[in-house]
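Case study B.
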Amino acid sequence: MLSNYFKIAIAVLKRRKFFTFISLFGISFTLTILIVITSFIDHLVDPGYPDANRNRSLYVQRMESSDPKKGWSRSGPVSFHFYDKYVRSLKKPELVSFQSMPSPTVTYINNRKLSLDVKYVNADFWNVYTFSFIEGKPFSAEQLARSEKLAVITDKTSMDYFGTTQGVVGKTITTDNEDYTVAGVVKAGPITDIPSYGELYLPYTLMKGDFKGTTLNGSFLLTLLARSENEVDAVKEEYAAMVKRIPPQDKEYTKISSEADPFLASFARPILGGDHSDGMTKLTGFVVAFFLLFLLLPTINLVNINVSRIMERSSEIAVRKAFGASSRILAVQFIVENLILTFIGGVLGLLFSLLVIWVINTTELIPGGVLTMNYKVLGLSFVICMIFGLLSGVYPAWRMSKLQVVRALKMAQ
Amino acid sequence: MLAHYFKLIWNRKRQNFLLFIEILVAFLVVFGVFSSIVYYYNNYKRPMGFDYNNVWTITFKNHQTGTEKKDSLIMLYEAIRNRVEALPEVEAMTYTSENAPFTMNTNGTDVKKGTIEIMADDYTMDEYYSKVLKPEVLEGSWFSSRDNGRKLPPVVLNETSKEKLFPEGGAVGKKVTVSGTEKEVIGVIRDLKDKGDYNAPFKAVYSKPDSGFYNWVSVAMIRVSPSADAAFESRLYKTLSGLFKGASIEIEHLSEKRVVKNGITVVPLIIWFVVAGFLIVNVALGLFGVLWYNISLRRQEIGLRRAIGATSGDVSRQVVTETLVLSALSLILGGFFAVQFPLLHLFDLPSGVYVTAIFLAMAFILLLVMLCAVYPGKVAAGIQPAVALHED
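Model:
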């Protein structure tokens, strides 16, 4: 039966080449755009390198001190004091990585300016994030405690500064008028992954700013690593309980809120959520709405063309109906045919997407980032493709099944 | 005749309904595109209001001044300025708040005058700012050393905030309250597009440093001579490292920062235009196909028309006009939706932008539909009455 449908579908496609071209163009380009966007979102949410443990990590990006009565609030990353006094006492996480927001520093090499994004980290940062070391090794907790002037640099930084990535361990890198000894060279991660991105990693004990203050707001992010995926919720609860116990810091700010969230939620919360929601529902709503709106026009377009094409086949429909085929069978047949058409368009779209992604990667549009076509993106595009096929097939099929045999035969003369 | 077309469209309402919806959605997409084009083009057209060429920003974080006293701080920063301005390549130097041109930083404040209250961007700087950025003074004057003799602290407004606070004109010499402090307006300057070329007009007030300013200042700007090169920049960096004790220093060029800042606006726009462009091409192809197909369904009708005396020109005109009438119906409904934007002040764009965009989008859609209908119209005109009627 299916192979029959397939034969008919191919025959119909060959009949009116121009219509086939329009349909395939619409389907394949719509899917190309959606696949590339999906791949980009996937890259933002889960690039894989250097954060391989994302499914059992929780992220802290927001510390809000506020006075609900007066409406004052101050919100941003956390301070060393907060980490030192409160976060260290947590029992549940296996490891806690503590890292500053990347901030630019400048160095001049033979009158050439080189701007490097510095990230100050603790020793566990190197255990939470699985960077691959081209050479050398990270600084240890002891070296960090002794404030040794060590630096881990990315391969890109190494190329820019030394002109090579080989044999630079032990050499001196100077930035901001300070000399650091290179301890290791790592493969650079994507610039879009704020918690792990940096071009020069330094022990936090070398931070120039005074990290002895007692405010809770600072310039640091936290990554809490649970022992397993099942323990993520327990870590989240322990963190929430710990924040609840913090006494108000000063008269002006009486309420303190901070949450350990899964990666995406940690970004969504400050923008779309707040104290009571992590903003994920809103974010998902926006993304779904965007995809549906975007699919609307190509779908209407395809429905339009399909309706026209069906009327062309009224003779075939009329004959089959006259010989006793039910409306339902005809409708199913048409929907299946349409799915086959969409599927062909989908395959073309996939090829186009591979091309676009290859172009984006070779031109390095995203510094340090590589877009991939993994099974997640593929699966999702397949689903989108099917939805698209169903949406554009149902209405014309319904129209067709309603055709009166007599009228259809007359039209078909 | 038009009534007749309406009847024809009505008789085929089921086929036409889908076309109607498609044109409607396409119109809304095009309306969105034109709204952003008109809005950003209007902003782009406005003058910059200052000269960003040969201006460098110096950021010095964690400067260890070793004193909290206001007088000693002023002395210290004055001494640094004299040392820097003594360099032959430097023409002028100014200390400003962190919201320097083309940065991501903004400071807001409330400004009151009588019953009028506005939120404005709040800039703080010393009097040398005008030598560095060369803002265009429209009324009154910029800050100068004579300001110390005034009873009230001076403030300079930009055009947009002046129009909001003094709609009747004549701002110079009047009093305004900036975040609770009464100040005297001494001048009005042209809006500075310091957030990038596509920066919309925004209310701004410029104030001189208050007593706390030198405790937290971390940004300076210098105007350099065109001959200042990378070698000079490297030397300047060393000089500054000696002057700002313990600070981490960054030197940036405004001309480069402007490109980055513009990119943040332009890149998403380009992506959006590419996507919209693809949608429009898709719609055009679909329309073309459907119209062409509809003609082949109406061969008998057209044959009959020709038989009773319609010329081929009449027939092709009829096809195009019918499609245009259908689009016009779609656009009336689409226009109704689009008009809600200026009426409800959605997205905070000026109403004029929306109105222009509505007209441009309507013209664009009508043109597109006409292009799509011309070829099917020609096909229809070529139908021979004898052949078409014989088929029936």
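The interface with chain A takes residues 15, 18-19, 21-22, 25-26, 29, 61-62, 229-231, 233-234, 237, 241, 246, 248-251, 275, 278-279, 282-283, 285-286, 288-290, 292-294, 297 of chain B (CB under 8 Å). The remaining cases will be described in the next quarterly update.
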